[in-house]
Amino acid sequence: MSDQVSSLENEIELTRERLGATIDELVYRASPKTIVRREIRSVKAYFVDPSGAARKDNILKITGGVAGAVALFVIVRKLVK
After folding, report:
1. How many angstroms separate the Cα of 72 from the Cα of each of 7, 32, 78, 81?
2. pTM of the complete model
3. Cα dist. 55→2, 38, 68, 73, 78 in Å?
């Protein structure tokens, strides 16, 4: 009986340690600073490849989209006047 109690106590302690580590990881991942850093890395990765060179195709896509939106606003504004 004592072996079973000891075994259960050990299992409970191991489970507590795993839960503690999991909670610590969740707190870290949900931290606003961590989220901001992750998003900044994601945006940078979209415009710069791992070697540090600019990804011109993605930059041109964004530039084209912005230019198209500005042109659309200018045209609509001229038509409304």
Report:
1. 71, 36, 10, 14
2. 0.56
3. 65, 19, 20, 28, 35
User: What is the per-residue pLDDT for 10?
Assistant: 92
Contacts of 29 (CB under 8 A, 6+ apart): 35
Beta bridge partners of residue 48, listed in sequence order:
54
* 12 vs 24: CA distance, rounded Å: 18
Q: What is the CA radius of gyration of the chain?
A: 27
Q: Determine the pLDDT at residue 5.
A: 84
Distance CA 23, CA 19 (A): 6
Mean pLDDT for each consecutive 10-residue tract of the chain (81 residues)?
85 94 93 94 92 92 96 94 77
Q: How many CB atoms lie within 10 A of CB 55?
A: 13
